Amino acid sequence: MSDDDRRSGRNWGGPGGVWRLGLAAMLAVFCVGLAVVRGVGPAGAQDTAAPEPNAPADLPARATNNADLDAWLDEAVDGVVSDRPGHWQFAVAERPVIVLTDELAGRMRIISPVGRVPDDKAELNRLLEANFHTALDARYAVWEGQLWCAYIHPLPTLTRDGFYNGVGQVVTLAVTTGTTYSSSGLRFGGGDEEVEPDGRGAM
User: Fold this and answer.
1) What is the number of H-type helices and E-type strands within the chain?
2) Among residues of the chain, what percentage have pLDDT more than 90?
3) Which of 56, 87, 91, 182 is an S-S bond match for 134, by CB 3.0 to 4.6 Å?
4) Contact 150/170 with Cβ under 8 angstroms?
């Protein structure tokens, strides 16, 4: 090892020396690449980063907020009650529906009560099987001793059609509880009997 190496603390040939050199080189390449992506480079360098592609057509042009849900509900539902921002109550097919949002957290949920949580283990298993096969985007859930149907979605990316679809799935799942346990006519998989405990055969 040269005197310069001793003074600088370098150890090119010692254990791990080649690895440290390789890591330093990789970090340098990463930092250069990151600078190019962010459009930051040496003074006078051209910004060669490609422009961001347009958002998919099914996403909103801007973040969805409570005002959008107000407008969507006013357009499609009669008798909406809203006692505070981010909270709406109404009925669809005589089923009570509640919509809750948290704009700061960017979350939205649509829920409808079904009844008391069943004591029968077989019925509870049937609800969980429905979550796997037939509830689709809606869900059976338990809250404060009650069984609910719920649809949960990020608020900023929620679309008008997606919102209406979520309401429809929640109401349909609540109505079919005890019969088909389905939020629509669709079903994942080929049936409960075709899915083995380790997941083989599913979807």
Assistant:
1) 5, 6
2) 59
3) 182
4) yes
Q: Tell how far CA 23 is from the center of its chain.
A: 36
Looking at residue 196, what DSSP letter applies? Answer: -
**3-class secondary structure, 61:** coil
Question: Are 137 and 182 within 8 A, CB to CB?
Answer: no
Q: In this model, does residue 43 exceed pLDDT 70?
A: no
**Nearest alpha-carbon partner for 156 in 67, 55, 63, 57:** 63
Q: pLDDT (tens digit, 9 = 90+) per residue, 143-162?
A: 999 999 999 999 999 999 99
Q: What is the pLDDT of residue 185?
A: 63
Relative to beta strand 146-154, strand 81-84 is: unpaired
Q: How far apart are CA 57 and CA 142, in angstroms?
A: 35
Q: What are phi and psi of 102, to 5 degrees?
A: -135, 100
**Helices 160-175 and 66-76: angle between axes, nearest 10 degrees:** 60
Name the β-bridge partners of 89: 81, 98
Higher pLDDT among residues 40 and 162, named by residue: 162
> Among residues 152, 140, 71, 73, which one has the least CA distance to residue 110?
152
Asked whether the whole model's pTM tops 0.70, one would answer no
| Mean pLDDT of the 64-73 span | 97
Whole-number pLDDT of residue 137: 95
Place of tokens 């998989």: 189
* Whole-number Å distance between alpha carbons of 89 and 81: 5
- C-alpha 132, offset from chain centre: 17
